[in-house]
């Protein structure tokens, strides 16, 4: 149960404050500002206890969102709720920034009224919420018949995440495979740890109650199917990937996944996260950083960084950034020979024997885990459109998570 | 912050709200109302315009209505008489044809926190419970709880409670979950909502239809259900299996907790579940959502208390990246410290060693303390690393290393020699109070093994006038007096000077009194000083062994997925202590019953074990070094004074046993190699009266028993019994750790 929700800017000024329970007073707003936002030292924990009240906070750019409670709650759930809150806000007005929050403050109060009641989370699906939020324009007292029936059907429906009677002239869906590849490499070029955490995000604009089936190059499925035709196994077996663990959106029928490992579902309308997964084996590391650091005397440091790409030349990587931390008082930095942008960040590093790692940021147009979408089939038995009529788009984006090479 | 000048703002807004031109223009009107809310958010007292805001509620503009209702809910307790004026509009809205308006009005009306509102909201709530739109029913159900809170927890309306119980069968999933929440609050005094078999099974069947918040909530309520039979229990567990793989980490944790609690009598099921959630937990620990990652790491530490090997093969997942936030790094270091074992100790130590030179002094110190923690098991390797760190001559590193050394010498006396060799030279790099105290303590207690100890202390004595910390001066007095006892010639003069300073010039009363105390003690004669200052101390080592023993899963299962693992048990106890019983969370009544049931060792028996070494008359002396020949001769000349068998399974790890015995001052004379059959060990110990205890341990694998034979050179039964109980404690603890 959440007693109150506050949003602050980086200075600690309150932008939004909503209290749900009596036991949270106005002084709680100030307590968080004084003890956390204005605190001198680094944040010690995302959960802070001040006068027996727990403050859970997350930061988005320079905005602080804090949920407050006096109860012994589940920490994971409260954070998930704050993330959801951010997602919902982002779906309405984009980036969470001070300006956007100030401009949309009526909308945010409306949202806070709907997604929490008496401190308990209520409906939080962006799609379903749209019916209740009247932000744009002034609506007359008498809504149209259609809108009214939407509310009733949405709220009585058996499937909480999708309302009935959705119609699109053009049935279209977008699949984004978004991966973040993480690497920790030793100075000797040994991989200390590497993992990919990926998400399959689907944006669906489909009429009716479509039944979807999603297939990918999951090793277990491929091997299962390959039993019949041994030939195919050897061909596709190489390209299949081993998934360490995966979780799905509520709409996916887990029983079917457990028995047949097939992913079938009725999707929510609009954007949602179909699946989240993690792999640790056979990761394609898009770049390899080879640092050569030489300390020449007491005041000179020579850093040579060789970066090798590890994918087809026809693919283009973007947003490449190599960060080579150097001491604050560095002079005479020479940049040369590398066509990518190089950013030299001064760090507050005073001791020359502690050398921070070289980190990289990038974006590549493939999935570093090797995941491939094999198919996404759509069946809608009641309406007359078939799988072929649906326009489908698939996109792969691999981004760097924490990609560090020690030197 | 515009806290000042609110009166002018209120006046201006009041004028604007009353202006008929503004009222006529919808957008301008709404704008003024928005300004009122904005000021309210910033903490200005806006109750002055209450009347005008009530008037503004009579509008067809829903956005305006929402804003006004938000305002009224905030200020109604301050202006109860004026708020009653708004009731009329709200009541009218409650029968609006639009379900959204009905829901909004009912929700706002129930949130008006003022006396006397109950009589007005009772009827709308009752009709709301039967509304055809589920949106209104959701609001009405929670409205019941709000109404009950307004009554001040007085009597419970039986009819209403029955109605809510029947609404548990509602079509709408959120109505169902809200019913549970509402009943829980209304029936708080009677122990909350009752989960009987039909309700439990109904909820289990509805689970897949609920959203993540609902699922987490229901999982929490199911904790109080006790299945009637084993068959039912396993049916329930089967139904819940899929939630261990939910995409929501909160649901995964909730399901894990329910499994652990339901299967409290089936340890293998519990272990199985923890294996199943290993993947999801590891995923959360490496997730980009940092706060969630933090919460997951706290729970990983909790699991490690019971299953130290659980994450050992994944130790690399807990290596820190440079760009991670501070709080995650600190948690990861703690985890690394706890999952260390024979296979990974080398790599973990190497990694931790890298952190010791981190730019952040805070993080570096945490890493050093972690190495100190590992040193309790892998002493030699760690002491070597710590000694190397001293060579860096960095203040913030040296001080923590010396503090670690102090604790280590106290807990693992076998490393004293190595520590004493590392100490010289440290004094140049220590400036803070904690570090100085640690160094001075070490020099005092083990000064006889450190050649330059008197000279280092002399420096401190010379500069005592400029010393700012009284605690350092206190430590200096004690240390110097101790050193004086072992090296009188070198210390006598400066001890005199220090005492003189402390008694004549010191302004801090505690230090002065300590100085006077030692001075008078010295007047009583050296023997007296020796007896008081150097007599055996209480032995911390058994506590250390107890500490390493694994805690059963059931000891923390009821704390899993609460704030306890996040704050730590001790901190949570102080936080929750002051919360009165009326603020009790839903789990508390259950927690008590979980703690008493289940096959765990009762807490009391553990405590008695811990007190043994202090309470008994037995005091074993630390440096009893018998030669093997002398032992052999004595062994054959004596008769067996006591013989018993001790249950034992599997092989013995000689190193662990030897170390454990050493900390309780039992020396190992000889021991078979691991796995030898039969396995034998000879031990010796001596108490402060000179009585010798010679022991033979004999393990014959086929009867899974350890035979203990003890011989004594003076027949005294009470010390013999104390000795045997000490020995049993050690063997028992080692046996626990191993299995």
Automatic annotation (TrEMBL), chain A:
Pfam families in the cross-refs: Adap_comp_sub (PF00928), Clat_adaptor_s (PF01217)
Membrane topology: Peripheral membrane protein
Domain of life: Eukaryota
GO biological process, alphabetically ordered: intracellular protein transport; receptor internalization; vesicle-mediated transport in synapse
Keyword match Membrane: yes
InterPro entries found in the cross-reference section: Adaptor_comp_med_subunit (IPR050431), AP2_Mu_C_sf (IPR036168), AP2_Mu_N (IPR043532), AP_mu_sigma_su (IPR022775), Clathrin_mu (IPR001392), Clathrin_mu_CS (IPR018240), Longin-like_dom_sf (IPR011012), MHD (IPR028565)
An example Gene Ontology molecular-function term: lipid binding
Subcellular location(s) of the protein: Cell membrane; Membrane, Coated pit
Domain MHD: from-to ranges: 170-406
Keywords: Cell membrane, Coated pit, Endocytosis, Lipid-binding, Membrane, Protein transport, Transport
GO cellular component, one term: AP-2 adaptor complex
Family: Belongs to the adaptor complexes medium subunit family.
Name of the protein described by the UniProt record: AP-2 complex subunit mu
UniProtKB/TrEMBL annotation, chain B:
SUPFAM superfamilies attached to this UniProt entry: ARM repeat, Subdomain of clathrin and coatomer appendage domain
Source organism: Enhydra lutris kenyoni (northern sea otter)
Keywords: Golgi apparatus, Membrane, Protein transport, Transport
Localization of this protein: Golgi apparatus, trans-Golgi network membrane
Protein name (Swiss-Prot/TrEMBL): AP complex subunit beta
Family: Belongs to the adaptor complexes large subunit family.
Binding partners and assembly: Adaptor protein complex 4 (AP-4) is a heterotetramer composed of two large adaptins (epsilon-type subunit AP4E1 and beta-type subunit AP4B1), a medium adaptin (mu-type subunit AP4M1) and a small adaptin (sigma-type AP4S1). Interacts with TEPSIN; this interaction requires the presence of a functional AP-4 complex. Interacts with GRIA2; probably indirect it mediates the somatodendritic localization of GRIA2 in neurons.
Pfam families: Adaptin_N, B2-adapt-app_C
Protein's gene: LOC111142873
Top-level division of the source organism's lineage: Eukaryota
Lineage: Eukaryota, Metazoa, Chordata, Craniata, Vertebrata
GO MF term set: clathrin binding
GO cellular component: clathrin adaptor complex; Golgi apparatus
Beta-adaptin appendage C-terminal subdomain domain span: 620-732
């Amino acid at each position: 149960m959440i007693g109150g929700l506050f949003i602050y800017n980086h200075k600690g000024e309150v932008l939004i404050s909503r209290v749900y329970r009596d036991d949270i007073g106005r002084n709680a707003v100030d307590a968080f500002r004084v003890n956390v936002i204005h605190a001198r030292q680094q944040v010690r924990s995302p959960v802070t206890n001040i006068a027996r009240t727990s403050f859970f906070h997350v930061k988005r750019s320079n905005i602080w969102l804090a949920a407050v409670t006096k109860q012994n709650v589940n920490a994971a759930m409260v954070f998930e709720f704050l993330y959801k809150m951010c997602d919902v806000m982002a779906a309405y007005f984009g980036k969470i920034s001070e300006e956007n929050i100030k401009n949309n403050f009526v909308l945010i109060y409306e949202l806070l009224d709907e997604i929490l009641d008496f401190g308990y989370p209520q409906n939080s699906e962006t799609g379903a919420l749209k019916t209740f939020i009247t932000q744009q324009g002034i609506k007359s007292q008498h809504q149209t018949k259609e809108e009214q029936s939407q509310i009733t059907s949405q709220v009585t429906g058996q499937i909480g995440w999708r309302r009935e009677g959705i119609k699109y002239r053009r049935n279209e869906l977008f699949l984004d495979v978004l991966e973040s590849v993480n690497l920790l490499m030793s100075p000797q070029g040994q991989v200390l740890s590497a993992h990919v955490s990926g998400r399959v995000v689907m944006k669906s604009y489909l009429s009716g109650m479509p039944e979807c089936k999603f297939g990918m190059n999951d090793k277990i499925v491929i091997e299962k199917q390959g039993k019949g035709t041994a030939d195919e196994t050897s061909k596709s077996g190489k390209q299949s990937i081993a998934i360490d663990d995966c979780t799905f959106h509520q709409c996916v029928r887990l029983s079917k996944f457990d028995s047949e490992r097939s992913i079938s579902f009725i999707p929510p309308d609009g954007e949602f996260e179909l699946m989240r997964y993690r792999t640790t084996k056979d990761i394609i590391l898009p770049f390899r950083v080879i640092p050569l650091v030489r300390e020449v005397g007491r005041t000179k440091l020579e850093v040579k960084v060789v970066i090798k790409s590890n994918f087809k030349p026809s693919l283009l990587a973007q947003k490449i950034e190599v960060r080579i931390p150097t001491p604050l008082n560095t002079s005479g930095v020479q940049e040369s020979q590398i066509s990518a942008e190089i950013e030299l960040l001064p760090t507050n590093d005073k001791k020359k024997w502690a050398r921070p790692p070289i980190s990289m940021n990038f974006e590549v147009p493939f999935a570093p885990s090797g995941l491939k979408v094999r198919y996404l089939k759509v069946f809608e038995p009641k309406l007359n459109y078939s799988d072929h009529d649906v326009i489908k788009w698939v996109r792969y984006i691999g981004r760097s998570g924490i990609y560090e090479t020690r030197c | 912050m515009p806290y000042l000048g609110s009166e002018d703002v209120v006046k201006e807004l009041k004028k604007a709200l009353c202006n008929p031109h503004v009222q006529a223009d919808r957008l301008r009107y709404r704008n003024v109302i928005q300004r009122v809310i904005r000021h309210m958010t910033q903490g200005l007292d806006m109750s002055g315009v209450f009347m005008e805001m009530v008037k503004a509620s009579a509008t067809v503009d829903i956005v305006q209505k929402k804003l006004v209702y938000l305002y009224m809910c905030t200020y109604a307790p301050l202006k109860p008489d004026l708020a009653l004026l708004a009731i009329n509009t709200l009541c009218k809205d409650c029968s609006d044809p639009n379900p959204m308006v009905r829901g909004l009005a009912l929700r706002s009306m129930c949130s008006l926190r003022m006396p006397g509102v109950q009589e007005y909201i009772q009827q709308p709530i009752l009709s709301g419970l039967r509304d055809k739109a589920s949106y209104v029913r959701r609001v009405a159900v929670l409205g019941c709880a709000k109404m009950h809170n307004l009554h001040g927890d007085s009597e419970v309306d039986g009819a209403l409670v029955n109605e809510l119980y029947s609404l548990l069968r509602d079509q709408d999933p959120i109505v169902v979950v809200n019913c549970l929440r509402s009943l829980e609050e209304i029936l708080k005094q009677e122990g909350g909502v009752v989960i009987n078999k039909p309700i439990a099974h109904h909820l289990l069947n509805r689970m897949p239809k609920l959203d993540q918040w609902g699922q987490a909530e229901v999982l929490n309520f199911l904790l109080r259900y006790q299945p009637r039979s084993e068959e039912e229990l396993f049916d329930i567990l089967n139904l819940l299996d899929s939630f261990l793989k939910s995409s929501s980490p909160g649901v995964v944790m909730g399901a894990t907790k329910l499994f652990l609690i339901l299967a409290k009598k089936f340890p293998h099921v519990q272990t199985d579940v923890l294996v199943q959630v290993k993947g999801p937990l590891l995923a959360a620990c490496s997730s980009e959502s940092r706060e969630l990652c933090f919460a997951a790491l706290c729970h990983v530490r909790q699991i490690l208390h019971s299953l130290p090997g659980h994450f050992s093969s994944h130790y690399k997942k807990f290596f820190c990246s440079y760009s991670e936030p501070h709080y995650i790094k600190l948690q990861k270091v703690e985890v690394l410290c706890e999952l260390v074992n024979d296979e990974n100790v080398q790599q973990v130590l190497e990694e931790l060693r890298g952190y010791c030179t981190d730019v952040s002094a805070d993080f570096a110190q945490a890493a050093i303390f972690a190495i100190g923690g590992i040193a309790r098991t892998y002493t030699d390797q760690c002491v070597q690393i710590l000694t190397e760190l001293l060579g860096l001559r960095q203040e913030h590193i040296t001080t923590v290393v010396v503090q670690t050394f102090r604790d280590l010498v106290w807990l693992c006396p076998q490393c004293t020699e190595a520590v004493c060799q590392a100490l010289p030279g440290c004094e140049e790099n220590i400036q803070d109070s904690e570090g100085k105290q640690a160094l001075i303590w070490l020099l005092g207690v083990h000064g006889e093994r450190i050649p330059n100890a008197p000279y280092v202390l002399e420096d401190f004595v010379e500069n005592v006038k400029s010393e700012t910390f009284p605690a350092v001066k206190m430590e200096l007095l004690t240390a110097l007096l101790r050193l004086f006892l072992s090296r009188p010639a070198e210390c006598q003069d400066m001890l005199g000077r220090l005492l003189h300073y402390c008694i004549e010039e010191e302004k801090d009363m505690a230090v002065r009194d300590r100085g006077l105390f030692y001075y008078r003690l010295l007047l009583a004669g050296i023997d007296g000083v020796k007896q008081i200052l150097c007599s055996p101390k209480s032995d911390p080592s058994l506590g250390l062994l107890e500490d390493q023993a694994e805690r059963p899963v059931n000891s923390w299962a009821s704390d899993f997925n609460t704030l306890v693992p996040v704050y730590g048990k001790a901190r949570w106890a102080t936080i929750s202590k002051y919360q009165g019983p009326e603020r009790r969370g839903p789990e508390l009544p259950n927690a008590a019953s979980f703690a008493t049931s289940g096959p765990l060792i009762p807490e009391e028996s553990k405590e008695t074990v811990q007190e043994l070494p202090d309470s008994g008359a037995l005091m074993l002396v630390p440096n009893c070094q018998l030669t093997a020949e002398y032992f052999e001769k004595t062994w054959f000349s004596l008769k067996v004074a006591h013989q018993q068998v001790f249950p034992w399974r599997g092989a013995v790890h000689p190193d662990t046993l030897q170390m454990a015995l050493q900390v309780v001052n039992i020396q190992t004379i000889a021991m078979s190699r691991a796995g030898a059959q039969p396995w034998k060990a000879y031990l010796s110990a001596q108490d402060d009266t000179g009585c010798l205890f010679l022991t033979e341990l004999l393990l014959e694998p086929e009867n899974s028993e350890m035979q203990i034979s003890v011989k004594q050179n003076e027949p005294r039964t009470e010390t013999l019994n104390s000795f045997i109980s000490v020995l049993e404690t050690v063997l028992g603890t080692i046996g626990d750790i191993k299995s």
